[in-house]
Amino acid sequence: MNETLTLHPDGRTSLRMRRRLPHPPHKVWHAITTPEHLAAWFPAEVTIDGDRIGYGFGPDGRITENDPPRTFAHTWGEDELRWQLEPDGEGGTLLTFTHTFTDRHGAASFAAGWHTCVKALHAHLDGRPTRLPDRPDPARSARLHEDYIAILGLPSTTTAGGTVRVERQLTRPAEDVWRLLGGPAATPGAPPPAPFTVPGLRPGPVTRAEPAKLLEYGTEDGGVRWEFAEGTGQGPRLIVTCTGDPATADAWRVRVEDLAASLVE
């Protein structure tokens, strides 16, 4: 397997990807460290001034290691990116890329994005025309994201203190998911639409509904909350919490995974 996840004691997560490139390390080094080459494949407009790196949007970063042509590491806000190059065969390079971040549930989105970038890097090194698409194909991006969910074995469900929590990055806009779940029919005081429930749990009436943002209802032992938060990639971060009945964990996991699968065209 060329992609792995490591959870660190401080709660941060590292995504590691390894790729073999049929170009020597010095050529790959220039492609990953100079703005004119980065423009062909990196997901931001990079400027370098001493040990400072600007990305055109969001927080800037700082170069933390610069050992040509072996290791180039830098921050991007709170994230850390590390590029390691090793000679591989006759004239080739083994690239090991590591991205360390705090948002574990965003790992598949990050992996799908870097997969696309490294593919563009490979094309750039080959001298083939390449440019990251301004508007990625939604269906292809969704399939790639779901592939990485499986490859990385990302867990979505936890149970603690009688509360089940399912967190899952989705691949379609929140408004689309809300309609698919029957959200427009959700009315306070009425039963929740069936897609917001799971077998074995008797739902009470809806207590709060905010289109494409939130739905809550009570149960015999607690309550259920569906929240559509800001996510990574094309869609929202879905967070479902159910209090009072930890035995429903598997049912909620299956419900959310079935929903995620239905969003891939």
CATH architecture designation of the largest domain: 2-Layer Sandwich
The level-1 CATH class of the largest domain: Alpha Beta
Q: Using DSSP, what is the number of strands? A: 14
Q: How would you sum up the major sheet?
A: 8 strands, antiparallel
Categorize the overall geometry.
elongated
Helix coverage percent: 25-40%
Count the helices. How many? Answer: 6
Overall radius of gyration: 22 Å
Q: How would you spell out the order of helices and strands?
A: EEHHEEEEEEHHEEHEEEEH
Overall tally of domains: 2
CATH superfamily annotation of the largest domain: START domain
Mean pLDDT, nearest integer? 94
Spatial order of the strands in the main sheet?
A: 1-2-8-7-6-5-4-3
Low-confidence stretches: none
Q: What is the terminal-to-terminal distance?
A: 26 Å
Structural class: alpha+beta
Share in β-strands: 25-35%
Report the CATH topology name of the largest domain.
Alpha-D-Glucose-1,6-Bisphosphate, Chain A, domain 4
Question: Can you put this structure into words, describing what you see?
Answer:
The protein has 265 residues and is α+β, with helices and mostly antiparallel strands. It folds into 2 domains: 3-151, 2-Layer Sandwich (Alpha-D-Glucose-1,6-Bisphosphate, Chain A, domain 4); 155-262, 2-Layer Sandwich (Alpha-D-Glucose-1,6-Bisphosphate, Chain A, domain 4), CATH 3.30.530.20. Helix content is 26%, strand content 35%. It is built from 6 helices and 14 strands. The chain has helices at residues 25-33, 35-38, 107-126, 138-152, 174-180, 249-262, and strands spanning 3-7, 13-21, 47-49, 52-54, 61-67, 71-76, 79-88, 92-101, 157-160, 163-169, 203-210, 214-219, 223-229, 237-243. The strands form 2 sheets. Strands 1-2-8-7-6-5-4-3 form an 8-stranded antiparallel sheet, with helices on one face. Strands 9-10-14-13-12-11 form a 6-stranded antiparallel sheet, covered by helices on one side. A hairpin with a 3-residue loop joins β12 and β13 (223-229). The longest helix has 20 residues, at 107-126. The two termini are 26 Å apart. The model has no long low-confidence stretch (mean pLDDT 94).
